[in-house]
Each structure stands twice: as structure tokens, then as C-alpha cells.
Specification:
The structure holds two protein chains of two kinds. Chain A contains seven helices and ten strands. Chain A is α+β, with helices and mostly antiparallel strands. By secondary structure, chain B is mainly α. Classes of the chains: A alpha+beta, B mainly alpha.
């Protein structure tokens, strides 16, 4: 659900100005207390005082209860979360810095979360390749999406996006492990490297590592029914825009777990970078 | 007779070796799988880190507003660049 552009923008931006008059061009992220009529009572963005914020919000609501308004189907459709393309398999990703280097900012102990979409035609391509050879390269768009958008250090929050042209290595090979009934099991592994410079925000940022995993595909539907993968990498960044919550200095270990996500939540929460549309779905990776 | 016996013993030995080899390969695959599972389990969120998911969050603000009106309650809206429900 995108608030700052599209059909919700005309409602959202005046609301933000009301509770954040001095926001300027800063982010609209944070917590809001709203009435059912769409009016805002309060804003904050400091989790340690969330409890007091909720008490203040409830008091403000009781003092000035909203009027009843019509909420039409058009607004419900406009506010619907971004849906994956038909037949998409969804993975859930968790990232940590492990072990945490001594003296690192406490924010580095947090857990990074995201979802990844694996398109039906990519799974179909894997199945087709497995009919031709026991060992084969993983689809380029899958690899491009994984390395560009998902093998990232997001433990301190939002990531300044990587670009496909930052990638210098992305080689992922799969092999068939077994076929039992309508389920085919694959193992895969690979290595990747990416690096970028974007002064003055950062001079040098990089990530390189390896991935190993195994997954089951329902051959009838071309859906991933089980996915287990682990990425171990070395990350570094001298990002200045992260001065309040800096990453560990020098190179530090980053690990990512990837598992299937077939629950209801996974169907309604888009990957963070899915907002970029085709750039996310069909990443063009210049690397050969 | 001795030759036949030797051949039989060799066959039995080869059979046993093949059986051991396939058991060893299977054990190796299971070990590799459990090693992968252990590495993944070490990263997955703890129960404490999943507590916030006990709240039945809405993912559609319009539906949430309609429910707030029905229940005569205020809404807590959590806004992130990305999505708080899994991307924070």
C-alpha cells in the first residue's frame, strides 16, 4: 500500500501536514493515530515511547470522536496491497549480523525481514531445465532479483537500493535431487559479489558471499512448496547517511535465511522493492 | 569349489560395500540437510521477535477505517518505507 503517491496521496499528504506541520521534505514514516473518518490525531516515530503515544492517542480520540463517513469500494480497491503476479511463489527472508562485532551499534543486533517473489515462469524454467540436464544455471531474473534486492544488509531498516550494474559476480547452479510423485526436489548453490560508490552518501559499500539451499516444486502447479536456503556473506559500508545507526566498521558477517511463505500474510505483503515494478520483476543484470 | 566360494565371498563383499556406500551417501545427504537446517534455524526470529504478529494487523487502510467505524475505536497506523509487516 503506497500512501505518498497514487490514489491515496490526496488523502495522505494533507493528513501528514496536519500532524507534522514542520515535516518539510522528511519521511512520513512512523506511527499515527487516526479516526475511522481518516482524520489524524497524533504522530510519533520513537518506539520506546509507543505506550504513552497510544494513551495520548486514545485520549485525543475520546475528546473528539470522528463523524461517520462512507468508505466506498473504490477506496478499498485503491488501498489494497500490491499483489504478486498470478502463480508467484513467496519466500520469507530474515537477515542478521552474526556474530555481531564487538563495539557495534546496538541497532546491528536487530533482525532484517523481507519477502521475495519467485515468478511462475522462473519455476517453470527450472523444471524445464531439469528435464534437459541434471545440473543447470538458475534463471537470470531469479538470480538478478535475489542478488540485487534481497541479499542486502537491512538489519537497521530501509536499504539504499542496490543496482544490477553493481553486481560483479552472480553464479547460481541447481541440480535435481529426486522426484517423488508430483514433487521434484532441487539443491542449489552459488556465489555473488557487489560493490558500489555513491558519494557523498558513501564511498565504498560491498557485499560478497555464498548461498546454499534446497527446494521442492509441485510440478503440476509450478509452485515452490518448500524452500530452505542460507546465505553467508561479508558486508562493508562507510555510509554517512547512517550516522545515527552506523553499520559495524570494516568487514562484518551477514547471514540470511530464506524459507517458503505460504500463509495469508505473505499474500498481502509485497517485497520492499516490489514498489519498483518491472525493475523488481525483471531485473536486467548486465553481468554475463 | 574354492574358486566358487571366493567369488561368492567377493560378490557378498561387493554387495555389502555398495550397500554401505549408498547408506553413506544417504547419511551424507541427511547430514548436509540437517547442517543447512541448523544454520537456517539460527537466523529465524525468536518467539519474542514474533510477538507483534499476535496483533491481527490490517494491510488495507480503507478496510481498517471501516472496521474502526464499526467498532467506534481509533486506529494505530504503522507506516514504513517498505512494509512493516515483514519488511521492517
Amino acid at each position: 500500500m503506497i500512501l505518498t503517491r497514487g490514489p491515496l496521496r490526496d488523502w495522505w499528504m494533507p493528513l501528514v501536514r496536519e500532524v507534522l506541520p514542520n515535516r518539510g521534505t522528511a519521511s512520513t514514516q512512523g506511527y499515527y493515530i487516526l479516526g475511522g473518518d481518516g482524520q489524524a490525531y497524533l504522530w510519533d516515530n520513537y518506539p520506546p515511547r509507543l505506550s504513552q503515544f497510544l494513551d495520548r492517542g486514545l485520549a485525543a480520540f475520546r475528546q473528539n470522536r470522528p463523524e461517520r463517513v462512507e468508505i466506498g469500494d473504490e477506496l478499498v480497491r485503491a488501498a489494497a496491497p500490491q499483489a504478486p503476479p498470478d502463480g508467484t511463489s513467496v519466500l520469507r527472508l530474515f537477515t542478521r549480523i552474526r556474530p555481531l562485532p564487538e563495539g557495534a551499534n546496538p541497532m546491528n543486533a536487530l533482525l532484517g525481514r523481507d519477502y521475495m517473489w519467485v515468478l511462475r515462469d522462473e519455476v517453470q524454467a527450472i523444471l524445464a531445465a531439469s528435464e534437459r540436464a541434471n545440473s543447470f544455471a538458475m534463471p537470470r531474473t531469479f538470480v538478478g532479483r535475489l542478488v540485487t534486492f534481497h541479499l542486502v544488509d537491512n538489519v537497521r531498516g530501509q536499504v539504499w537500493p542496490w543496482r544490477p550494474q553493481d553486481i560483479s559476480r552472480a553464479s547460481f547452479i541447481a541440480r535435481t535431487v529426486r522426484t517423488e510423485g508430483k514433487v521434484r526436489t532441487f539443491a542449489f548453490n552459488g556465489s555473488f559479489a557487489k560493490r558500489s560508490s555513491n558519494p557523498p552518501a558513501w564511498q565504498d559499500r560491498g557485499l560478497e558471499g555464498t548461498v546454499e539451499g534446497e527446494f521442492d516444486v509441485d510440478m503440476a502447479t509450478a509452485r515452490i512448496v518448500r524452500f530452505r536456503a542460507h546465505a553467508g556473506s561479508q558486508s562493508w559500508s562507510d555510509a554517512r547517511h547512517e550516522r545515527n545507526f552506523p553499520p559495524p566498521s570494516g568487514r562484518y558477517p551477514l547471514v540470511t535465511a530464506m524459507v517458503e511463505a505460504n500463509d495469508d500474510l505473505a499474500k498481502h505483503v509485497a517485497p520492499e522493492q516490489a514498489i519498483t515494478g518491472q525493475h523488481y520483476l525483471r531485473p536486467f543484470m548486465p553481468l554475463r | 569349489m574354492r574358486t566358487a566360494l571366493t567369488s561368492f565371498v567377493r560378490c557378498v563383499s561387493l554387495g555389502l560395500m555398495a550397500a554401505f556406500a549408498s547408506v553413506a551417501a544417504a547419511n551424507e545427504a541427511i547430514d548436509a540437510q540437517s547442517a543447512l537446517d541448523r544454520k537456517i534455524a539460527a537466523i529465524l526470529p525468536s518467539a519474542e521477535e514474533e510477538r507483534w504478529l499476535r496483533i491481527p494487523w490490517h494491510t488495507n487502510i480503507a478496510e481498517a477505517r471501516a472496521e474502526a467505524q464499526r467498532l467506534n475505536k481509533p486506529l494505530l497506523l504503522w507506516v514504513m518505507n517498505g512494509n512493516p509487516l515483514g519488511c521492517a
